[in-house]
Structures are given as C-alpha cells and as structure tokens.
Specification:
The complex is a heterodimer of chains A (about 300) and B (about 375). Chain A has 12 helices and 2 strands. Chain A is mainly alpha-helical and about 300 residues long. Chain A has a two-stranded antiparallel sheet. Helices cover about 70% and strands about 5% of the residues of chain A. In chain A, helix 5 runs antiparallel to helix 10. Helices cover about 75% and strands about 0% of the residues of chain B. The termini of chain B are far apart. The chains are: A mainly alpha (about 300), B mainly alpha (about 375).
Chain lengths: ~300, ~375
C-alpha cells in the first residue's frame, strides 16, 4: 500500500514529464526538431502565469491559466515562424542546435524581465485548491490529482485529435511526406506552426500547473528535460499515448525507488537515463512508425 | 585483386596537405612571446584567466576531434573532463602519485568510458546520439560522481596542490607555462592529425559514411578512435583544470557545463581546430569582460543563444568560417578594406579595454 501511494504521488512529477514529452513528440514528429527548449518554454510560461495572477487577481486562477496557455501557444508558433521554419531544409543536428540556443535565451530573458524577483522563490496559488483527497490509506493533494487528470486528458485528447480532425490528419500528412502534403493543398507552414503552438501550450500547462507545488526559478525545469526525453522515447519520439504512459510510469518508478531502503533511492535518478539508453538501442521507434515515415522525419 | 584494393586506399599525402614545417618557426616564436608577455604585461588575475582559456580551448579541441572530424555529437563533454579531473586528484591525494602520472591516468581513465559509450554510439546517429550522451552523462554523474566519494570527495570536493616537477609550478605564471606547453603539444597533434591519413579518413566518414565505406574506410574503427582521442584530451584537460583552480566538486561538472562546451565549440566553428580556440576566446571574453559590468552579465546567455542560432541560420562554420570569409573579403581589395578591418578590430579591442578598465572587474584587486 505504501508503494502504491508512492507511485501515485510520483505520477505528479510523471505528469510533468508526460506533458513536456507530449510537446516534444508533437514537435519532433511534425517538424523534426528535437526541442531542447521545451523545459525552458514551460519555465517561461510559469513566470507569465505568476505575473498575471499577481497583477490581475480578478482574472482568477483559471483566467490566468487560460492566458498562460495562449501565451505558450503563441510562443511556440512564434519560435517556429522566427527560427525553425527557416531550418526546414537544414540537417536535423542544426535544428537541435537552434533549439539549444533558444533554451539558453529564454531563461536569460526571464532573468532580465523579472530581474531581482526571479531568484526569490515566488509562489503561485493552487488552481485546484489546497484540499487533500483520501481513498482508504492513500492521500493525495487535489492539485496533484488535477495535474495528473489534465495530463491524461491532454494525452488522450491529442491522440484522438491527431487521428480524427482535419488539422490532425494534415499534421500526419506533413510528417509522412512534406512535398506530397503540399501538393495535396496542405498549408504546410501553418500546420507545422500549429504543431509548435500545441507543443508550446503543453509546456505552458506543465509549467503553470506544476509551479504551485514548487517555486519559481529560472532553472526549475532543467531537471525535467532529460526525463521528458525518456518519456517521449518510450513512444519512439513519435507515439503520443506511449509518451503519456512513459511519463507517468517514469514518475511512479522514480518515486517508488526513492521510498525504498538502502542505496536504492540513489538509483531513482538513473531510471530515466537507463530507459533512454535501452529505448535507443532497441530502436523503439520502429514499432510505432513505418520505415518510410521515419526517414521523412529524420531528414 | 589486392593491388586494386591497395590503390583505393586513402593516399598518404594529398596536395595542399602540409605537415607542420614551414610554419613551425613562426608558431614557436609566437608561443615563446605569449609565454613571457602574458604574465609580464598582465597581472596574476589575467594570467589565471588566460590559463583558463587554454584549458577551455583544449576541451574544445577534444570536441572538435569528435564532432568536427567524424561528425558525432556529444553532450557529455563536462563528464569526461570531470572524470579526468577527479582521477588525477584522487590518485594524488590517496596514493601520492606525482603530477605527471596523475595527468596520464586522467587521460587513460576515459578509455573504458569511451569504449562503453562508443559502441552504442556506433548504432545511433545525429539526434539520437545527442540524447544518448546526455543519458550517459546523467548515469556517470549519479553512479560515479555521486556514488563514489573516494573519487570525487563527495559534496565537499577534492583539494589538490599545483605540481612540483623539477621546478615548482606553484605560481600562476609558472602554471601558465605548463598549461601552455601541454596545450601546444595537443594543438600540434590535432593540426598534424587532421592532415594525416587517419584524419582524412575520419573527415571522409563525416561527410558521407556510405561513400567512405565504399572507399574501404573502416568507419567503426575510425569512429572509435575519435571517441578515444577525444576522451583522452578531455581527461587531460580535466587534470589541468582541477590543478588550476586547486579544488573542484562534481557540482562543477554537471550538464550545464557540457552544454556550454558544446555551445562554445559550435559558435567557434566545429569543423576546424581554430574553432575551438575562437570558441574559447568567445566564452572567456564573454564571461570575464562582462563580469565587472553587473548589468551586462544577464546578457551573456542571450549572447550564447543568439550566437548558436546565428551559426545554424547563416554560418555553419561558426566564427572560424566567418573570419575566413572576412579575410577573403579584405584580400580582394586590400587597400581600403584593410583599413576598415583594422578600424573594426581596433574598435573591438578598444571596447574590451574600456570594459576591463572602467567595469571595475572583481578579482583583479
């Protein structure tokens, strides 16, 4: 029972891995960018959420959350139009380097904009209230439950949207064959920007919902990045539901390891890294997409 | 048949390939002048900073050997540097080894790790390799750096003394000479290596693996060799670094530093060894010159980020390529363009001088 409780609590952090991972997958699949700035985007959005809640309290936490998500989406689309749309024909490594550049710029911008305040450990109020839910011996803060629920909802919703909606179909078409999609009349740039916007919105959601459980810091999201990669890699960087499962499972496993005795808690941090190496070596992505599509993404 | 295969092998000497020879005298003179001018003209602080620059340039060279020569991306530079640093410190502190043996073991300790990382890396390309090296860095940090206090001294870190080999290298100026000597050796090696048969085979591997294989180049062998060489240079640089600052804990070798090293080399120009030097200059100047001007320090990371994006958008060969283009531009019409170039360089140096002079940089006083 203790371990079950630990696993469920761990899923809170797992939800953050999953939300970031979903964004990574969406962006990687549609534009071939392995986005190292995903965590920085989440951090940036968290600061925006804080600013809105403090300077416009009448908006309530939900209004602030909505604006933050819109901000994240705009940031994602803006980054695509400004930088990554120009790198469509560059090698994948060049796109990766550009995203590392963005990951350097965003925290520095936050330090400039919120200078003096950025290091003070600012807090954000809970969106879901500060209550605690109990089922028999398992206790969980409502905020954590809300974060997990939103993440699961996002994962399933995005997957369905990708499968059913016109935009989602267009996105998959662009991922499979950009040229053919363009010839079929898909506005390829706008569709890719939409993928970045959703990726940015996911990052914003992760940042805004997680910060009430921690405190604001320009570096706060950095440790989440490698784990978000691990989560996304369970889906081979292309499969959304597996990314969701990967994130939640990684959070749960880490938490259970931390609750064990002896030297096992120290191993918690290595689970994600071991996962990355294992998934890469078995080339897990081949279970989710055809060889043809893989080539299209890797170009 | 065998003769035919022999004919297809990479030639030993190609036109334009020039081993160190004619330039040797000029280079030696330049090094000698630097060795005496830096400690004599600048204070102890700037000698220290310059030594730091040499160490960073050496770390940059290790990445150029790997990323520039065979095109393998590594985001674990800091981890290999840390391994070298801690190994040299541990064998000195616990076993009392002399500095030269410690530095040698710092270089060699990276070999098994390179082997461990290199073999999976052979299966992975580009992006996947970048994530894999990130994961390896995390694993080594957790299992070796944090899990083995004998090596790293735990959270308090390791303390070491500057070496004493025949003469003491205790002072900043003397230690600067030592680092300069090692650095020049590594630089000369890299310079010759890139023009050697092995170096050309490596660059062929980078450009097109299939074509290289068709030429009879054993790409597995050359990739592994690049991993080994890069690791040894990084480990050696680590030993020099920890003896420079005389102390170090694993907090200093986390992945922010790996990213910084990567950024530095990409901005400098990953394809040539001059890129490592220019990257080192960029990094050190950025952080040291702006250190005094509190307001500007916030912009260093922005400068790194903008630099990276500038490189991928318009200048894949980084500062090294940019300067080469400018040099060609000057040579085209030397009369007035040389003036522009001189004015530009003078303006840059003047700005730096102003920053140092009126920035009131800390640490010098």
């Amino acid at each position: 029972m203790l371990y079950l409780n630990l696993a469920i609590i761990g899923m809170t952090e797992g939800a953050v891995y999953a939300l970031l991972g979903l964004g990574l997958i969406l962006i990687y699949r549609s534009t071939g960018v392995l986005n190292f700035s995903q965590a920085a985007m989440a951090m940036c959005s968290a600061y925006v959420a804080w600013q809105i809640t403090t300077s416009a309290p009448w908006l309530t936490v939900w209004g602030a959350l909505a604006i933050t998500i819109a901000f994240g989406a705009l940031m994602g689309a803006g980054l695509y139009y400004l930088i990554f749309s120009r790198l469509r024909d560059s090698p994948p490594v060049a796109r990766l380097i550009a995203s590392v550049g963005v990951a350097f710029i965003l925290p520095a911008l936050v330090r400039v904009v919120w200078s003096g305040q950025s290091e003070r450990g600012l807090h954000l109020p809970f969106q879901f209230g500060s209550g605690v839910v109990k089922f028999s011996s398992i206790a969980l803060q409502v905020q954590k439950l809300g974060l997990i629920a939103v993440t699961v909802g996002c994962g399933i919703g995005l997957h369905q949207w990708m499968k059913r909606s016109v935009t989602g179909t267009a996105l998959r078409a662009v991922a499979q064959n950009r040229m053919a999609a363009q010839m079929a009349g898909v506005p390829e740039r706008r569709i890719s920007a939409a993928a970045w916007a959703i990726g940015g919105a996911m990052a914003a959601l992760a940042g805004a919902l997680y910060v009430p459980l921690a405190y604001l810091d320009p570096n706060m999201m950095i440790p989440f990045l490698p784990k978000a990669f691990a989560a996304a890699l369970l889906g081979g960087l292309v499969n959304l539901p597996m990314g969701l499962v990967g994130g939640l499972a990684l959070g749960a496993v880490e938490s259970v390891f931390r609750g064990m005795h002896g030297s096992l808690p120290r191993l918690a941090e290595t689970v994600g890294a071991l996962g990355i190496v294992a998934f890469l070596l078995i080339r897990i992505e081949r279970f989710f997409v055809s060889e043809h599509e893989l080539k299209a993404i890797e170009q | 048949m065998s003769a035919g295969v022999e004919a297809l092998r990479v030639p030993r000497q190609v036109s334009g390939a020039r081993p160190v020879g004619k330039l040797f005298g000029i280079a030696a003179a330049a090094v000698a002048v630097t060795a005496f001018a830096i400690p004599a003209l600048t204070g102890s602080y700037w000698t220290y900073v310059f030594t730091y620059f040499l160490v960073y340039a050496m770390i940059g060279l290790s990445l150029v050997l790997l990323t520039g020569y065979v095109g393998q991306i590594s985001l674990m530079g800091a981890t290999l540097v840390g391994l070298g640093a801690f190994t040299s410190a541990a064998v000195e502190v616990h076993w009392g080894w002399p500095f030269w043996a410690a530095a040698l073991s710092a270089g060699l300790i990276t070999l098994p790790f390179s082997l461990l990382i290199g073999f999976p890396a052979l299966r992975l390309r580009g992006l996947y390799l970048a994530i894999a090296t990130l994961a390896f860095a995390k694993l080594i940090e957790e299992l070796v750096f944090k899990g083995w206090p004998w090596l790293t001294g735990g959270f308090s870190g390791m303390q070491v003394h500057r070496p004493h080999m025949l003469i003491p290298f205790e002072s900043d100026a003397r230690y600067f000479w030592l680092v300069l000597g090692v650095f020049c050796a590594v630089l000369a090696f890299t310079y010759n290596f890139s023009r050697s048969r092995v170096g050309r085979a490596m660059r062929a591997t980078r450009e097109n693996e299939l074509a290289a294989q068709a030429m009879g180049i054993n790409i597995v062998k050359y990739k592994m060799l690049a991993f080994f060489l890069s690791g040894v240079v990084a480990g050696l640089a680590g030993a020099l670094q920890i003896h420079l600052s005389k102390a170090g804990s694993f907090e200093a070798y986390r992945f922010y530093l790996s990213f910084l090293i990567f950024v530095m080399v990409v901005i400098g120009g990953v394809r040539s060894m001059w890129g490592a030097l220019l990257g080192g200059v960029f990094l050190i100047l950025q952080t040291e010159l702006l250190r005094g001007v509190e307001f500007l320090t916030r912009f260093t990371d922005i400068a790194f980020g903008v630099g990276l994006i500038w490189v991928v958008l318009s200048n894949p060969e980084g500062l090294a390529g940019y300067l080469r283009d400018q040099w060609a531009w000057v040579k085209e019409k030397p009369r007035w363009r040389a003036l522009v170039a001189v004015a530009f360089v003078a303006f840059d140096i003047g700005t730096m001088w102003l920053l140092v002079h009126f920035g009131g940089q800390k640490g010098a006083g």
